[in-house]
Amino acid sequence: MSQPVIELRDLLVSRGDQFVLKVPCMAFHEGRIVSLIGPNGAGKTTLLLSLMRLVKPDSGDILYRDRSILHGRSINQYRRKLSLVFQEPLLFSTSVYRNIASGLNIRGMRRYDIRSIAEEMAELFGITHLWKRRASSLSGGEAQRVNLARALAVRPEILLMDEPFSSLDAPTRESLISDLERIIRSRRITVIFATHDRSEAMRLADEIIIMNKGAVLQTGTPTEITQTPADEFVASFIGTETILTGKVTGSDNGVFSVSVNGMTVNVAGSVEPGMNVTFCIHPENIILSSMSPDTSARNSFRCTVVKTVPLGYFQKVYLDCGFTLMAYVTGRSMDILGIIKGRDLVASFKATSVHVIRKWPNFHPAIRPQN
Amino acid sequence: MDLVLDGLIKAYHLISGLDPEVVAITLLTLKISGTATVVSTGIGIISGTVIALVRFPGRRFIVAMVNTGMGLPPVVVGLFITILIWRSGPLGSLGLLYTPAAMVIAQTIIATPIITGITLSAMQHLPEKLRLQILALGATRVQLLLLLMREARLPMLTGIMAGFGGVVSEIGASIMVGGNVKGYTRVLTTATVMETGKGNFALAISLGIILLVLAFAVNYTLTTIQQRKTP
Questions:
Q1: Contact status, residue A245 vs residue A278, Cβ threshold 8 Å
Q2: Does residue A368 belong to any structural domain of this protein?
Q3: Contact B229 A134 (CB under 8 A)
Q4: Range(s) of the domain holding residue A303
Q5: Structure pTM?
């Protein structure tokens, strides 16, 4: 991997007696798209503002290409290598053109160059027809396009975005994300964007950083985060709804057994008997059948359909196996198996589909396992 | 009724005939109130912006002072300035009493809190994150201030209009520090009061009409600028 563009070392930002951001170490690499995800109050915005040097940390350091940005005097020179996009477009009360050109004007560029860059940006974001319009007359999607065009017009090395799509409707968001991804990938811009929408993060990011209460909980690729969430909070936040806790009753040959509400779940791995463990199972790993299947899956449970929720092309099926289990089933399989509320089925999953996670004290996921 | 009608007819003749005395009083009014408004605009916009953006101890007290100052009675200002520039007062040696300069000072003191207060309010009503957005665009402190002022320009113009309206129509301070000296410190308001007292209603009415037209003309110009469609 390339050298980090920005590095954080022992960064601490506090408000009053409480810290709002605590990052022992973090690095952002050139050309990568990194998503910070977490609930409100996770510290995402504080991290972005610290990177932009709009918030001064209490301790620690931020290095830009190996040089501290906290101790130098040329803060404007540093800021001019970055761009920041907020959730609200925050456009100036002037024309679209002047808004796109504002960062270039601040840098004192020549009028001819400003116009040429602004025109290029307007074309890239499909807003040429809005050129002379007043910013206040734009729709939310148009305004955010102008905001992004303004941010990219200054040719930033690093683009910081704070929930840039959250106030947009789904079709507008989808088309804007597509256009933005095309532009930032082609220009190899390093992007750090905060969101609480996991699908946005999964869609755009090369790397995801999960945050909560000012701390980093897990860093990894979208696949790593989804498949192997570090703990109960991460699992719940990225949408894993089946999170169970039980006591290890036995361990043999790389598989251990966990008792959950009197049912035994087989899990790949090795854990000492007697220990309490928390684990998650992804709904796409559950196989439903009308009778016990003859497969390599080590876990099979008789269950009853409690509820079905349509999710576009497939449905989420809530099952009662003695504990609650979620499964994704396509419309065709729903028809073949005749899945309706109250239907008795068999749910199967492999021991390797079960992922053991850390338990959070006093943690309350959206759907609490029945144990 | 005849008195009013007669007064209006005579006023028409005085204005349409460009009576030299009326013209001189009008020009002096414009000069004194215009100068006071320009000076107040400079002080008011800068101080309003600084108070809005900078956090410092005693800020709340200063804001309360500014808000109180927006309703400052002109006679109190007149009294205060008169005492200061009275021959035996602390600034008596400057010989400012009954001069246009004294009137400009008094009117500046009246208009400044109005413009400061409205600027302060305008700045505080800008989106909180706009300041961060401008800094993130790489702006220097001076560029930040200029861009914020540009964003708040419409309510600021309202402040300037209110400031001009306040000083062009006040009489208490002008008569106390200016003395209504003919051809020197006589402005539309002081002349109107004097002519009314003398029973010269025609002249008083014509001065009153001119005062209204003047106030309207200045405000109309500023309103046109304010309501002009940007870009």
A1: yes
A2: no
A3: yes
A4: 243-356
A5: 0.82
